[in-house]
Every structure is written in C-alpha cells, then in structure tokens.
Write a structure and sequence with these properties.
This protein has 153 residues and is mainly α. It has helices at 2-6, 19-29, 33-46, 51-66, 71-80, 85-97, 101-111, 117-131, 139-152. It is 71% helix and 0% strand. The longest helix has 16 residues, at 51-66.
C-alpha cells in the first residue's frame, strides 16, 4: 500500500488550474468583472486556444453586461424599439442568461440585414460572443451560425 501511495496509485487526479484562471475566479467571487476579464485576457494572450479561458471570458463579459439589469424592463423596451441595436443586444443577453438561446440568436439575426458597417459588425460580434457560450456542436448554434453566414454574404 505504501508503495502504491508513493507512486500516486489510488489517488484522485487533480486538474491543474492556470494562475490567471485562479485570479479570474477570485475576481468573480469578489464581483470584480473588470479584473476577471483582464485575467482571462492575460491567459488567452499566453494560451490563445485555451477553451476554458475562451468560455470564462465570454461568461464574464455576459455577467458584466447583465449585472444589475432589470430583465423585464429590457424585454419591454425591446418590444417597443425593435430596431434599436443597444436595446436588442441587451435583450439578447438577458435571453441567453435565461436559457433562451434560439430567441436571442433570432433577435440579433433579424437585425443583420437592417444595418451596415459598424452597426452590422457590432451585431455580428455580439452573436459570435454569444455563440462562444454554447457548445459549438449544439444544433441551435450551428443553425444560427449558418443563418449569420447567409445574412452576411
């Protein structure tokens, strides 16, 4: 038994967490979204393909955008101003937080053909940020990505 313990047999493997991720988690626990975002960006600068960091950054940014927001008021404002980009972006964030992926994607996809230039890019970029929050193999993301590509080209 002693030999097995010395060799690490029978021990539960612990997952190594990156220092930047520890920093981000501590910042999130303290409610400091700015510090958490900076920590995830630092990790991504060092390890650009770290899927946990990509997801952590996307989640942190979503939490920062929705923290303290009155979801019911945003939904009401979105109904009253269907072509107001900022309100629709905020509403899509609320829908994502609430688990309504398809309505959030559809809300922003509807806006793509209505705008040009920087406004269209803003909508496209938010969609891509929201896609990062969901498994890329999820059929709802695949469908929305296809719709985005079709709307852009």
């Amino acid at each position: 038994m002693a030999l097995a313990a010395e060799q690490g047999v029978g021990e539960v493997a612990t997952e190594k967490i990156e220092p930047e991720e520890e920093e981000a988690i501590a910042a999130l626990d303290a409610g400091d979204f700015v510090a958490a975002e900076a920590a995830y960006k630092k990790l991504l600068a060092r390890k650009p393909n770290d899927t946990f960091a990509v997801l952590g950054l996307a989640q942190t940014q979503l939490m920062a955008r929705t923290d303290g927001v009155d979801g019911a008021k945003v939904m009401q404002d979105a109904l009253a101003s269907p072509d107001e980009i900022e309100i629709q972006l905020q509403c899509a964030d609320i829908e994502i937080v609430s688990g309504y992926l398809e309505p959030a994607f559809a809300r922003l996809l509807r806006l793509i053909p209505l705008f040009d230039g920087a406004e269209k890019k803003q909508i496209k970029d938010r969609l891509i940020e929201l896609f990062a929050l969901v498994d890329p193999a999820d059929p709802r993301v695949i469908k929305a990505r296809t719709a985005l590509a079709n709307a852009l080209f």
